[in-house]
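It is worth pausing here to work through a concrete case rather than discussing structure prediction in the abstract. The textbook approach is simple: state the sequence, then state the predicted structure, then interpret. We follow exactly that order.
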Amino acid sequence: MSAKASKEVKYSWFFLNRRAVFALTCTGMTMVFESFKEAFMTLVLVDEYHVAEKWHGLIISTPPLFYVISGNIVGLIVDKAPRRIFICGGFVLMAVSNLLMGPSQILHMPKEFWLFFVGYAINGFS
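Step two, the predicted structure:
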């Protein structure tokens, strides 16, 4: 093996590449949007929406189910349009989902379980 072929890969290269930094930032933001609610989800389902405990597992598995569906759809479409449009669209959908899961008292949205569930599903889809 020549000296040229045995070049060492450094982690600092990820932070010097603009696309890699963009991807790492988007991934980090997505994980925050996806995982912040998992710690208290069962408490919200019991205390605020009075959902029986036997349904908690199915409700909490909703975002991953929609993620699997959307991942396959986006995989088919992403080659035909710029990827950044899909990323920005995903963040807009995450904002809408968090607004629905809220609910927002400023916007006078009702606190209904079906709105919460739709927002939770959109969160997984986005």
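Step three, interpretation. Residues 36-125 form one domain. The mean pLDDT is 82.
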